[in-house]
Amino acid sequence: xxxxxxxxxxxxxxxxxxxxxxxxxxxxxxxxxxxxxxxxxxxxxxxxxxxxxxxxxx
Amino acid sequence: xxxxxxxxxxxxxxxxxxxxxxxxxxxxxxxxxxxxxxxxxxxxxxxxxxxxxxxxxxxxxxxxxxxxxxxxxxxxxxxxxxxxxxxxxxxxxxxxxxxxxxxxxxxxxxxxxxxxxxxxxxxxxxxxxxxxxxxxxxxxxxxxxxxxxxxxxxxxxxxxxxxxxxxxxxxxxxxxxxxxxxxxxxxxxxxxxxxxxxxxxxxxxxxxxxxxxxxxxxxxxxxxxxxxxxxxxxx
Lengths: 58, 235
Prior knowledge:
The structure holds 2 protein chains of 2 kinds.
Chain A: H1 3-27, H2 31-52
Helix pairs in contact in A: 1-2
Chain B: H1 2-12, H2 15-35, H3 42-65, H4 68-87, H5 99-117, H6 144-161, H7 170-197, H8 206-213, H9 215-234
Helix pairs in contact in B: 2-3, 2-4, 2-5, 3-4, 6-7
């Protein structure tokens, strides 16, 4: 496992945590905070997938 | 052997009977408490009884008239349940439904939908084998690590479903459920993609290429983090 694979897993886990925080804020009617965390979560997921995808095939 | 015998007996009772078990569970968790709640009209009680009769009638009807009765039973059950809820709308307010009951009801209806839509369980069909006497071997098994990724994604998706059940208004509760569903699906999809990407053949220099490709997203993420820190310091 390469270091970038670990980074992808960390970003994936962070996205999950951030979604939980964002949804919690949404339930408390703190819309701006919820929107911020949800956007951070989506960007983290996108980064995790882009890093995990193979660069080139042998 | 005992489990096999139980499955044999279960498969012989038909699809409507198999769907009855989760149907009665869903009815018991969501319809009956609404119909017999304080202040619920008689119409809600009659509709709730009609729903469970439609469900049980499907079992007897399937044996007598075949599989077409399942459709009548399914729609009778669903529409009568909807009528019971409509007649007692106050019992469905966010303040009257606690989180465990809401989750149990959601699971019950999902299981009922699955059992109703899926074909009936069948017992062993030795006579239908294309290659007699030999078990077919799977071409490829699921790698051990993949299950951990999927289980992690499913765990986060499940945790997301546990949140927001005490939202102040019905509209807010619906919005939270919708967002929880969408984010849960996104997490599951991303976990699957990351798990599958491990099996791709990679070149050594692909590490730099992968980081360079994700650079724009990583910079966006860093900017968002910086913005969050600045706002937190100001607040």
